[in-house]
């Protein structure tokens, strides 16, 4: 990693150029995240231009797959066949009970790009630095490493080490990465939230439910933070799905499509409304650029 690989947004020389179209912020939620595919399906069918994508956890996987240029039909077909064993391998360690190394191989099989620089749509992936509790945003370098870090849910997956950083699930600091999308230059941001609740009621029965409910409780206090950076928020009806209901991908996809169809008139109106004044855009960017660190170059 180069010496200037990490830099604070406060030190950045200026606001990004505004990108016409819709910036997507895709949140985490394990198998519920398949709803993102339904949203993408509706946007594509209605010729809604996507200017950039920011993803957390499963949102980083599906967002990067789409940004890589892979056809949506191919991504959906792959997701219908995915099971937990395809992305994880059980192993007991001090830092987690599973490794997500298999996710890296899955990415290589499905994606049409291997690095951020090769993507057809600009992309940002959010992870959490366990050393200082700050968000880390990947915009350059190896895609698989960034995605594995963003998907390393604490307690379940081992953290991912990149350079000197120990990284975990981006949902800890950015449940829906609307600010990351704004920092990419999105003039309009659509946030898609699918939640991380485990879909069960009553007392937790396993370690994953304990951790996921604790994270969910903490995230309830973050809603105002990420929502105010979105122009529009979609909440597909997927709360009845458990985190590992991978075999119910079609239900999640249909829920995402339904949410996007309901919001389609508002999305279209958003894109045809006059953009904010350039000075106001830059002022908003600088006001928001307080807490994120950009990881400009991942170590090989």
Low-confidence stretches: 1-14, 276-280, 289-300
Q: What does the radius of gyration come to?
A: 18 Å
Percentage of β-strand residues: 15-25%
- Fraction of residues in H or I helices: 25-40%
Oligomer: single chain
Order of helices and strands, N to C?
EEHEHHEEHEEHEEHEHHEHHE
Mean pLDDT: 78
* End-to-end Cα distance: 8 Å
Q: Biggest sheet, in brief? A: 10 strands, mixed
Continuous helix count: 10
Shape: globular
Extended strand count: 12
| Computed structural class | alpha/beta
Structure report:
Strands 1, 2, 3, 6, 7, 8, 9, 10, 11 and 12 form a 10-stranded mixed sheet that branches. The protein has a two-stranded antiparallel ribbon with strand order 4-5. The protein is of the alpha/beta class. The radius of gyration is 18 Å and the shape is globular. A hairpin with a 2-residue loop joins β8 (160-162) and β9 (165-169). It has helices at residues 35-45, 58-67, 72-81, 101-110, 143-150, 178-183, 207-219, 223-227, 249-272, 278-288, and strands at residues 6-8, 19-26, 50-56, 89-90, 98-99, 123-129, 135-138, 160-162, 165-169, 186-192, 232-234, 292-295.
